[in-house]
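Figure-free illustration: sequence to structure, shown twice.
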Amino acid sequence: MENIQVFLQENQIVFTMLIKEKEIMNNQLEQNKLNAIAFYKTMFDGDPEKAIELYVGDEYRQHNPMVADGKAGIIEYFTRMKKEYPIKEVRFVRVIAQGDLVALHTHQIWGEPDNKEYITMDFFRFDENNKIVEHWDSIQEVVKETKSGRTMY
């Protein structure tokens, strides 16, 4: 009987530790999701330096072929985009987090000079400090008619 009590006490300790670890992981996933959205909004609002300062880690790896690697590359890209497209709107359709990755599915409306709409999928990798250290993305122009009759978002 004593062995059973010791076994139950030890397992209760392990179970409690697992619950706390899961809570910490869930909190980190939620924080990473919020950081990815805030980073995106700050970039699109035309303040890439602030976005880098608040949400990016020591190193930044870029996989978008139109953007140079590192912090300077993303600052240059979004500074140029703000000049070329001063009016842009971003709507977050989905935000998904797993492990150290956050995926953003967005609907973007770019004003003059093109007045086009886009769907994007962005993936961000976070470090242990909840800072973005790597980015992948894909963008597709929204078409008016689809064979399924459903929107792209």
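We now fold a second protein in the same way, so the two outputs can be compared directly.
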Amino acid sequence: MTAKCTVKKVNKNGTATVIAERKSACEACHANKDGKVCKACDIFLGDDKFEAEVDNSIGAELNDEVMVESPSGHVIATAALIFILPLVIAGMLYAVMYFVRSEYAPLGAVAGVIISFAVILVIEKKTEKKKNKMRITKILDKKTDGANNAEQK
């Protein structure tokens, strides 16, 4: 997946903090029919902008417009984790509770969703420490030093 971003901050550790409109990240999504943020992003992520820390080995500077790439496998795995895991766990607990006492089956499904989001948070915390796989691949519009200096004041 690629997204057009703006460099918000250049970090000393060789990374940059970028901000992008979710629209540019979701343009190729099949759910994006009217040019707006897709319903899934709107419901689960809310804001139409996202911020990320990415590898800046290309040397982008403050306010540069850049292209950021994330491996497709990483995007697919994240989507599967967020959308499929809650369904699987909720379905399993629903089935178990149905056979124990059928009137408790809906409670099992709700408990499954809550447990799955707890699992997602734990996985997110563990993978957060790993090296970020997103990276700046191209500088689209390099801003002048005057614009950078005005922004830093």
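Summary for the second example: The helical segments are 22-26, 39-45, 72-100, 105-128, 145-152.
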